[in-house]
Amino acid sequence: MTTTGITAAETPTRALPRWAVFGVANLAVVAVLAVASWYLLADPTTSPWHLYPLPFNAALFWAILFVVFVGFVCEFVGFDRLPQPARGLALLASTAVFGIVATWVLAQGLGRIAPDFAASRPGGLGYFSGALFVLFGFGTWVMSVLNWRHWPWPQLGLRQPLAGLCEIVAVAIPTIVLYLVIGLPAFSVHVRNPLMAGDTVLGWFYSIVVAVLITGQLLDDQPWQMLGRGRPGRVASVSTIGNIALGTVLYFVFVQLTHLLVGARAAGDLGVGIHQFPAQLGVCWAFWMIFWANAFENRPTSLGTIANAAIRLALTFVLAVATFELYYRFGARRILHEPAVAAGLSGNALGFLDWAVLWTLFYVVGFQSYGLGRWAPAGTAD
């Protein structure tokens, strides 16, 4: 999920190489956009619309999935014909419409005949039940792009937009199955003994999403390319099985790690809710993996496969842990005015950090870092 075609000359600055200045500048812009728009649309104390946490989070999840569809599955076909900033504005507007309409149709349309999706469910759970589909979509469609590399559509000779539309439809089948078998029952008003509890569903499957991003983004689709011997169909099969296995391991590791990060008292307050916290840490890591690849060019890129991967993994993970702690212990309460969830903790990282992911996709990818061109590097040497 990386950008393409930066053409400005790369020269070092006094303190930082040009690529680092460019990345930091993007981070500053994304942070300002995310926080300012949060105050307007979602902040529990400053927003006039009282959308926090739902239906705001529901529309946010659908919005990110729309960007995955048009930006990465369909490779911005149609949008790429527009000059900047029209291209970015078109993406922003169409994404907002899709997110709002999808949320409204499920809650106010389907929700009238299916109680699971009703807007009237306590705590906005009807909105959440519909948007839960997106969690599984993050795993399946992102994996089809990063790990499968759009297999089998290029091999069949299909081009965009037909290839992307076929990919969306085909991958929708396993996504719907996962949602109906594992996801929806955990939050249904009718099911008493779901296959997994709701917190476990969130924590476990988001860990699989993290595995997809690690292998597809940070590791350049290794080890799946090696194990699949470069054969597209085999790589797709191996990566699917491998990401499920890796994600499951990450889930159990993250449960223990987040228990340590939040502390015994907060973990006790959370109870079974601690099983959701692999997703809370995972979204912090997802933000940095996506941001690092797109704003910092997925550096390093010239130190060898193992060194590149090790540095990217270590750096983004450390940033994720620091972001998790900063958000839950300070930012959510002091800056974003989110309510407490346990002793010393406030907020829900699946809200604001996903909002920051969306603004990264808007600004860095959709607008192509509009206004920062003079700092954009062109070379690939570190």
UniProtKB/TrEMBL annotation:
Ranges annotated as spanning the membrane: 19-39, 59-77, 89-107, 127-148, 168-189, 201-219, 240-257, 277-297, 309-328, 340-365
Keyword Nucleus set for record: no
The entry's keywords: Membrane, Transmembrane, Transmembrane helix
Protein name: AAT family amino acid transporter
Organism encoding this protein: Tsukamurella soli
